[in-house]
Description:
By secondary structure, the protein is mainly α. It has two domains: 1-45, no CATH class; 56-313, no CATH class. Helices cover 69% and strands 0% of the residues. It has helices at residues 8-12, 18-22, 36-39, 56-76, 78-84, 86-98, 114-131, 134-144, 146-151, 157-186, 193-222, 225-241, 254-260, 264-275, 282-313. The chain is elongated, with a radius of gyration of 28 Å.
Amino acid sequence: MATGQLNSGQINSGQINSGQINSGQVNSGQLNSGPAGAADFPAAPWSAGPSGRVPFRTALAHTWYLTGRKLHALVRQPWVLTFSVVQPVIWLFLFGQLFRKVIDIPGFGYHGTYLDYLVPGVIAMNAMSNNMWAGMTMIEEIDRGTLNRFLVSPASRIAIMNATVAEQAVSTTVQSLIIVALGLAGGARYHGGVAGVAVMVAASIGVGVVFGALSNAVGMTLRSREAIIGVYTFFMLPLMFLSSAFIQTSLMPGWMQAIASRNPLNWVVQIGRSAVSAAPDWGAIGVRCGGLLVLAAACVAVSVLTFRSYSKSV
């Protein structure tokens, strides 16, 4: 090859034409692999940025598609949602009739029927109960190899977790609205109107995110269905009865009142009950909603960290 007439500056600035290449005017030392060569080609739309992070819009698009995948599976199995509200129906109408005279206990201090009192508690308990099984789905995807296939794809890691949270939120919303409708059919009245019902459902989504994220973290860490069942059994009944779902906390012993005041399930019950009342206490609702959001963010962060640890181990 003849002595070249081009320097590296010309190579980097793209001043080489095909005639110069063909006539041998470029020597081997001048054909370096400078960074400008990569800049001539646009990055793939699904690829990570220079820092290794997926752009926000890409992560959002991935979340949309992955959530759609999960919702399509849910639509193909509508019986899952149907059977998921069987237990809340039992709580609502069996307990509603069994404990309906509780409202007459001196000091109970609630103006309305016991069914009015019970509906927010049943919605909160249903959200917690169903989302505590989220780890089962995560274990199933690990066992089938689905999760590992996503990890070797260009899919955003955060989108994989966001899709799980979004699917749980949609399921919780549908189930909560079914319970609201059943309560209305049974004679419950929501004096707070549509806005109150919306706040109650939003709070149920929040507590669902809390326990769904923790369940996912347990599932990815222990990868054992028995562990999920153990966690459910350990937390479900104590948290349910250490709340105002069935009875006012003022009628509980002092130590139970102290636990109930720090119980996120009780926060959601109180948010919903106040929101659908004739005179909502929006200040107290705002404080409890803020605490619930902080707790949900912390639990999601734990779940994401656990997921990243899992992705590095495969």
